[in-house]
Design goal:
GO terms for molecular function: 5S rRNA binding; structural constituent of ribosome. Part of the 50S ribosomal subunit; part of the 5S rRNA/L5/L18/L25 subcomplex. Contacts the 5S rRNA. Binds to the 5S rRNA independently of L5 and L18. This protein is of the alpha+beta class and 206 residues long. It is built from 4 helices and 13 strands. A 6-stranded mixed β-barrel has the order 1-3-2-6-5-4. The radius of gyration is 28 Å and the shape is elongated.
Length: 206
C-alpha cells in the first residue's frame, strides 16, 4: 500500500518553512501543472530512509491525490537536513525512465587477497512500470578476483526492467594490491657513503 504525503500551500520564504519543520516541494509531470508546495520534512525523511524510490500518494490542497515518485532530493551538505524535494507525477500503467541505486553485497575474493575494490557506477538507468520499482539493485561481488571487473552487460537480468545504461559501462573492478617499493640498496647506502666522505674531508682539513 502506498504511503500518503500531505502537501500544503507554501507560505513564506523557504528558510522560514524549514524552521517550521516543513520542506519546500515542487510537484510536476504527467501533464500536470507544476505546483510549488510544502510537506512535513520528518514524514518525507522517514519515507526516504525506507525506500527512496517508493511510489507515493501526494495529497494536494484542493485537487485530490496524485501518484508520485521522489525525483530529486536536495540536502544541506553537513547536517543533511532536507532543503528541497521534487515530486514527479506518474501514470501507474505507463513505463517510466528512472534510476536505481546499485548495492554491492559480499566480499570479493580479490579483496580478501589484498586487492582494492573500486566502484565506477553507483546508479543504473532503467525503464519500468511503477510497481516494478525497487529501492536498490543488489549485485553479488563474492566471486570477483584480482583483475576482474563487471560491466553493465554482466549484471543479472531483472524481470520487468529495461536497462538504459550503455552495456559496456564499467560497474566495478578489483585492482591488484598497492605495492610500496623499497628503496634500492644503492640508494640506501648513498647517504652513508656521503657521510663517510664528509668525515674524511674534515680529517684532512684538521
Amino acid at each position: 500500500m502506498s504511503e500518503t504525503v500531505r502537501l500544503i500551500e507554501r507560505a513564506g520564504k523557504p528558510a522560514a518553512q524549514r524552521r517550521q519543520g516543513l520542506v519546500p516541494v515542487v510537484i510536476y509531470g504527467a501533464g500536470s501543472e507544476s505546483l510549488s508546495l510544502s510537506a512535513d520534512a520528518k514524514t518525507v525523511d522517514n519515507i526516504l530512509s525506507k525506500n527512496p524510490r517508493a511510489v507515493l500518494k501526494a495529497e494536494l490542497p484542493a485537487s485530490g491525490t496524485k501518484d508520485v515518485i521522489i525525483n530529486e532530493v536536495q540536502r544541506e551538505p553537513l547536517s543533511k537536513k532536507l532543503l528541497h524535494i521534487d515530486f514527479h507525477v506518474i501514470d501507474l500503467k505507463a513505463e517510466l525512465d528512472t534510476k536505481v541505486a546499485l548495492h554491492f553485497t559480499g566480499t570479493a575474493a580479490g579483496v580478501k587477497e589484498g586487492g582494492v575494490q573500486t566502484v565506477e557506477l553507483h546508479e543504473l538507468d532503467i525503464r519500468t512500470l511503477p510497481d516494478k520499482l525497487e529501492s536498490v539493485f543488489e549485485v553479488d561481488v563474492t566471486e570477483l578476483g584480482i583483475g576482474d571487473q563487471l560491466l553493465v552487460s554482466d549484471l543479472p537480468k531483472h524481470e520487468g526492467w529495461e536497462v538504459l545504461t550503455d552495456p559496456e559501462t564499467l560497474v566495478i573492478k578489483i585492482l591488484p594490491p598497492t605495492v610500496t617499493e623499497e628503496p634500492a640498496a644503492e640508494e640506501a647506502e648513498a647517504p652513508a657513503a656521503v657521510e663517510e666522505a664528509a668525515e674524511g674531508s674534515e680529517g684532512k682539513e684538521a
